[in-house]
Specification:
Largest sheet of chain A: 5 strands, antiparallel
Number of strands of chain B: 0
Largest interface: A-B, 37 and 40 residues
CATH class of the largest domain in chain B: Mainly Alpha
Strand content of chain A: 15-25%
Strand content of chain B: under 5%
Shape of chain A: globular
Radius of gyration of chain B: 16 Å
CATH topology of one domain in chain A: Immunoglobulin-like
CATH class of one domain in chain A: Mainly Beta
Largest sheet of chain B: none
CATH topology of the largest domain in chain B: Rna Polymerase Sigma Factor, Chain: A
Radius of gyration of chain A: 21 Å
Shape of chain B: globular
Number of helices of chain B: 8
Number of strands of chain A: 10
Distance between the termini of chain A: 58 Å
Structural class of chain A: alpha+beta
Strand order of the largest sheet of chain A: 1-2-3-6-5
Oligomer: heterodimer
Order of helices and strands of chain B: HHHHHHHH
Helix content of chain B: over 70%
CATH architecture of the largest domain in chain B: Orthogonal Bundle
Distance between the termini of chain B: 44 Å
Helix content of chain A: 10-25%
Chain lengths: 292, 148
């Protein structure tokens, strides 16, 4: 049998060019019915459940569970502006999974910029120029995480080669997280001051064992000469897909110079805006001093 | 999931149903089932195998349904609407289901016997036997067509 000839004949068969769109529309119909019922119960935002179902059916489930999309995670944490950026395609979708301890951690997507925080009007005209990363945690044994489970004992922090982990990290960059559980997966929206000025260096999002544990010298090695950062124990080191064109060494230096100056209280991550966000969600916002 | 697996599933379904539209119905039905049942997959391979087997089973159901339920007049129209597939694809489609699936996965998708065994939940020797017999039947079919 001639394989190439067979392939050519199969490839010559015309399926509907809009098959995927029609399929998604057909799938969304029952999803929206479910949404309407669910909204009465939980008062979730319009489109949320349907979007989640769409995500479950459009994302490759290389992982053991179906997953939301970054835009769904942003929306569920109440950040519509950020959700729209992920939806627009301007953000960087990553979908990379690594294992840390008993968890499969998926780095789903990343974006940076101003005007995406839930609270923009800060005293003194302070703008919130931030980097946002969406992650998902699932148990490696396939068992579902539940709302009442203990939060995974993992810490998230950006690290940048050339800068000591204990100097440039989630704590010094004003990091914070929002999280919630859906369908057995714990989703994290991590945010910190914009790391794009450091884009001429290799930057990581490190996920490592420990709760609210700053990246000390016990946890990470730092080569003073090369600037390389090496985990001393188990850690997932996701390389941040930053645009090198956005590197700003002067601003990076200014950030480093200002890191250890007293921070105004207002620069802490904003509190819940109380917009009717579901009580079912485990939404948490951590101040500057706690990144996870 | 739709974006990733649709092309492969549509091709597999086509080995069992009459038209591309029927193949699309089969694949849509499988995605609807995923939505309704929300099965938990161990990993990507488990997911792919589940989808493939579900699609082949659904395609078989559709083919049987079309054959059993359609009035003769409509069946004649449907036959007239069936695309004119190439001789090799037509020959594969005319094979017994047990053979066509293995032949398709081996020759189009490029899976090994071991991989097909995993996808179809069959022992590898069974896959090897079906592949061998399928090839033989294909040769016979093509030879008969040449003589016509």
């Amino acid at each position: 049998m001639n394989r190439e000839e067979y392939r050519a004949q199969v490839d010559a068969v015309s399926f509907s060019p809009d098959f995927q769109e029609r399929t998604m529309a057909r799938l969304m119909a029952p999803a929206r019915e479910k949404e309407q019922k669910t909204m009465k119960k939980f008062n979730l935002k319009t489109g949320l459940i349907a979007a989640a179902v769409a995500a479950a059916l459009t994302v490759t489930a290389g992982a053991a569970v179906v997953m939301l999309r970054p835009q769904d995670v942003a929306q569920m944490t109440g950040n519509q502006a950020l959700a729209e950026v992920f939806e627009s395609g301007e953000a960087t979708m990553v979908d990379e999974t690594k294992t840390v301890g008993d968890y499969r951690v998926t780095f789903m997507g990343l974006t940076s910029g101003e005007g995406l925080s839930r609270v923009e009007s800060l005293p003194g005209g302070v703008t919130q120029d931030k980097t946002y990363a969406v992650l998902a945690y699932a148990r490696t044994d396939g068992t579902a995480l539940a709302d009442d489970d203990n939060v995974p004992q993992l810490t998230i922090s950006p690290l940048v080669e050339g800068y000591a982990p204990w100097e440039l990290n989630a704590w010094t960059l004003g990091g914070g997280t929002h999280s919630f559980v859906q369908d057995g997966v714990l989703y994290y929206l991590f945010e910190c001051d914009n790391v794009e000025p450091f884009a001429d260096h290799t930057a990581y999002l490190a996920v490592y064992p420990g709760t609210h544990l700053p990246p000390s010298g016990e946890l990470f090695g730092f080569d003073q000469e090369t600037g390389a950062i090496t985990p001393k124990g188990e850690a997932a080191m996701f390389t941040l897909p930053l645009d090198k064109a956005k590197a700003d060494p002067q601003r990076a230096q200014a950030i480093m110079d200002g890191l250890f100056k007293p921070q105004p209280v207002e620069s802490a991550a904003p509190a819940e805006d109380g917009d009717g966000q579901s009580s079912e969600e485990l939404v948490k916002i951590f101040p500057v001093s706690a990144a996870n | 999931m739709v974006e990733t697996y649709s092309p492969m599933l549509l091709r597999a379904a086509l080995t069992r149903v009459k038209t591309p539209a029927d193949a699309e119905d089969a694949v849509q039905d499988v995605f609807l089932r995923v939505l309704a049942k929300r099965p938990r997959f161990r990993d990507g391979e488990h997911e792919k195998a589940w989808l493939l087997r579900a699609t082949l089973n659904r395609a078989s159901d559709i083919r049987r349904g079309r054959r059993d339920d359609v009035p003769l007049e409509e069946a004649a129209n449907a036959a007239a609407e069936a695309p004119d597939y190439g001789p090799l694809l037509s020959a594969v489609r005319s094979l017994p289901e047990a053979y066509s699936a293995v032949i398709h996965l081996y020759y189009y998708e490029g899976y090994s016997i071991k991989e097909i065994a995993g996808l179809l939940a069959l022992p590898a020797p069974t896959v090897g036997t079906r592949l061998s017999r399928g090839r033989k039947r294909l040769g016979e079919i093509l030879k008969e067509e040449e003589m016509l």
